[in-house]
């Protein structure tokens, strides 16, 4: 694709000669137009993007130097070659101050000018290519950061309504968008899932990585901004940003979910099922909607390809509503490791089941069976089961059983958590101390939740919960804060270059480091050093 050049001179024979003599096509340029003075040129420059301006200095209404000054003030982004019949050095000096690429005297040596244009355009194309590559790299960084922030919001570890410095700048757009929420979960009740239970960690991680890639490849076809977030082993949240609600109807959302399931069936060997939330959601409602979907999926055997979930439960009977609520509270207690809470909900569940007719219990049992399959999975994520206990529970759940068997399994879960809770607090404190030291030693590297969790032998989801409970902030907020404090120290106490400081605190991309630093301190790194650095203190 050709670039565009604008010729600016009040002498028509000059612009005619430039149009005819210079081999524009060979240089990859097209003459976009001709202007007789600076005002005409400025109007043209503001109406369309121009790559190169060839401009005379002395012209009526607005001369070339004033035009160049305004071009730079408005940051119009074109390269400029000045043409002049005057050898006065003051003109040359002014042109250099405004970043003019070259300065040529009339009469114009056309062969020399052709070479100058070729050199300038070659450098411009290289610069634009590099800028585009940096933008792509920066875009990928923002996407990864956005996914981490959205994970914390979905898990209710972060309050988006409270704002905070992490959500300033580009990340603020996360809070302003509305989202479609699709949850895809592995069908752990299927025959093939029995093999999955025995996979080694390495095989499991590779499989999870492959699933993420399949989902992302499929979602690119929507052309919409999206995020694929792994919530736990075998479960993903897909968020699609909807600029216009009309483009994200429930029917369209279902079609996206069906397409994702189809892609997974084609490329992944385990079975999945999906649920979508009925409404388009603001960011503040994502966490509650995700919990609602997760509970509905846990309580509902896979009877339809895509489950539709909403906050309205008017279709449930009174007994079903009670079971639904008890199961949700029990799930929360299990995730907290709250053995007394599980025992309390177990009593409520036992009472409800005893008050049901035999026929009603028969309808409820498949739901509770599937719920317990998922609860054992949660315990596995938390590392709350020994391999022996885990295998025993899977074995029981793989066979048909009555209400008393179900209650026995839940009691076994309670017992497992009870044993674990004896030294849970001490163990948690020890693990978090170890994590803190690990982070301090590795701030210079690109750190992820997955790597930190693996370091202390926890699943990412349970690690994130434990981290928030211990430090009161999310993992990404803690790491970013530590990096910024370290950067402030280096900027104020050393003369190390900003690029090197960025690398020392874990940012390979200096521009991204600068964005984060401005969000955290309100100053860019250079201004911060001027105010608080060695030179600034000496000046004071």
UniProtKB/TrEMBL annotation:
SMART domains the record matches: HTH_ARAC, REC
Modified residues (4-aspartylphosphate): 56
Pfam families reported for this sequence: HTH_18 (PF12833), Response_reg (PF00072)
Positions of the HTH araC/xylS-type domain: 433-531
Keyword Kinase on entry: no
Keywords: DNA-binding, Phosphoprotein, Transcription, Transcription regulation
Transmembrane segments annotated in the record for this chain: none
Highest taxon of the lineage: Bacteria
Cross-referenced CDD domains: REC_YesN-like (cd17536)
Database matches in InterPro entries: CheY-like_superfamily, Homeodomain-like_sf, HTH_AraC, Sig_transdc_resp-reg_receiver, Tscrpt_reg_AraC-type_HTH
Residue stretches making up the Response regulatory domain: 4-121
Cross-referenced PROSITE patterns: HTH_ARAC_FAMILY_2 (PS01124), RESPONSE_REGULATORY (PS50110)
Protein name as catalogued: Response regulator
Species whose genome carries this gene: Paenibacillus thailandensis
